[in-house]
Automatic annotation (TrEMBL):
<dbReference type="GO" id="GO:0008173">
    <property type="term" value="F:RNA methyltransferase activity"/>
</dbReference>
<dbReference type="InterPro" id="IPR013123">
    <property type="entry name" value="SpoU_subst-bd"/>
</dbReference>
<keyword id="KW-0489">Methyltransferase</keyword>
<dbReference type="Pfam" id="PF00588">
    <property type="entry name" value="SpoU_methylase"/>
</dbReference>
<dbReference type="InterPro" id="IPR001537">
    <property type="entry name" value="SpoU_MeTrfase"/>
</dbReference>
<comment type="similarity">
    <text>Belongs to the class IV-like SAM-binding methyltransferase superfamily. RNA methyltransferase TrmH family.</text>
</comment>
<keyword id="KW-0808">Transferase</keyword>
<dbReference type="GO" id="GO:0032259">
    <property type="term" value="P:methylation"/>
</dbReference>
<dbReference type="GO" id="GO:0006396">
    <property type="term" value="P:RNA processing"/>
</dbReference>
<feature type="compositionally biased region" description="Basic and acidic residues">
    <location>
        <begin position="1"/>
        <end position="10"/>
    </location>
</feature>
<dbReference type="InterPro" id="IPR029026">
    <property type="entry name" value="tRNA_m1G_MTases_N"/>
</dbReference>
<dbReference type="GO" id="GO:0005829">
    <property type="term" value="C:cytosol"/>
</dbReference>
<dbReference type="InterPro" id="IPR029064">
    <property type="entry name" value="Ribosomal_eL30-like_sf"/>
</dbReference>
<dbReference type="Pfam" id="PF08032">
    <property type="entry name" value="SpoU_sub_bind"/>
</dbReference>
<dbReference type="InterPro" id="IPR029028">
    <property type="entry name" value="Alpha/beta_knot_MTases"/>
</dbReference>
<dbReference type="GO" id="GO:0003723">
    <property type="term" value="F:RNA binding"/>
</dbReference>
<feature type="region of interest" description="Disordered">
    <location>
        <begin position="1"/>
        <end position="66"/>
    </location>
</feature>
């Protein structure tokens, strides 16, 4: 009886298995296999990362131009409690309201949420991370609203409204202001002191962005802003409409406190550092400077705007004060 294969004795080491009986196996006709060949090209020595060899040319991302960076923010968003409150109070159409879930029942935010909901806005309770994404990490105070993009006015309409508001209107013109915080602060100061409007150029300048609206703290809801294609042509048009163009220039020998501002005024403010462009300076009727006693060579654009505006309105406030006679021919304001 044949033993099971598992019980058959194994051949000793160094000995081959016994050949089977019968005809010998014919040689195989199969073509011998070629050595393994890589399907990708050999690595270029120029791209080798070994020391002493040239490195691969990596294309680095190009920096974003200032003009493109100004358009990164979504113009349909406002954030911050005061900005959202002003938008709702002035009946701006709000499509959606994102609120931090922790603030839904907060006494400071509850009225805003209820007003927005009553006007048809969709209320989304979200976390802080989502709000940071919407605002690109800005100080949103836990609330963000999606509204219609800012409604700029035509320059002619701004002039008509300004002249109807007072006898000697004041309009601010911003020349190449690219910092949204500066523009927002200028708008806030202009509205607070009583100016009738702001003019900004379309190119090489920031428009009304969420950051501008946030810094303006609601002033955009009551102050008109005109955006023009060419600021120089706009100033020429304002001259024809009876306005005097006053520009700020640190090299001017005429200081702001020795200048009379008793007429319709367009105050032109330049960017911090570069100041007013030469073409805009040539269009100004008067160039004034702010005297500085310290070693700091210049002021922030929004700070300079506030100082000149205050001097303009200080002179007008003094004109309205009643006078009394103290003796002789001297009159003094009370």
């Amino acid at each position: 009886m044949v033993k099971p294969s598992s019980d058959r004795p194994r051949p000793a080491k160094g000995k081959s298995h016994p050949q089977r009986k019968g005809k010998p196996k014919p040689p195989s006709k199969q073509t011998p296999r070629k050595p393994f060949k890589k399907r990708w090209p050999a690595k270029d020595s120029a791209y080798s990362s070994r020391p002493g060899r040239p490195q691969k040319n990596i294309i680095k991302p190009q920096p974003i131009s200032p003009e493109a960076a100004l358009q990164e923010e979504r113009p349909d968003l406002v954030y911050g409690r005061h900005s959202v409150e002003a938008a709702i109070a002035n009946q701006r159409p709000i499509n959606r309201l994102w609120v931090n879930a922790r603030l839904v029942f907060d006494a400071r935010f509850r009225p805003l949420i209820l007003d927005a909901k009553a006007n048809g806005a969709v209320i989304d309770e979200v976390n802080t991370q989502r709000l940071n994404q919407l605002t690109q990490g800005a100080n949103h105070q836990g609330i963000v609203a999606q509204i219609a993009s800012h409604d700029y006015v035509e320059l002619a309409d701004l002039v008509t409204t300004a002249k109807a508001a007072c006898r000697q209107p004041v309009i601010i013109a911003a020349d190449s202001i690219t910092d949204p915080h500066n523009l927002g602060a200028i708008i806030r100061t202009a509205e607070a002191l009583g100016a009738q409007g702001v003019v900004i150029p379309q190119r090489r300048a920031v428009g009304i962005t969420p950051t501008v609206a946030k810094v303006a703290a609601g002033a955009l809801e009551t102050l008109s802003v005109a955006r023009v294609v060419n600021l120089g042509r706009a100033l020429e048009q304002l001259k024809e409409d009876g306005f005097w163009i006053y520009g700020t220039a640190s090299e001017s020998g005429q200081t702001v406190h020795t200048t009379q501002f008793d007429r319709p005024i367009v105050l032109v403010i330049g960017a911090e550092g570069s100041g007013l462009s030469l073409s805009i300076q040539n269009l100004c009727d008067v160039l004034v400077s702010i005297p500085l006693a310290g070693k700091t060579p210049s002021l922030n654009a929004s700070v300079a705007t506030g100082m000149v505006l205050y001097e303009i309105y200080r002179q007008r406030w003094l004109e309205k004060l009643p006078t009394i006679k103290l003796g002789g021919d001297q009159n003094h304001a009370v």
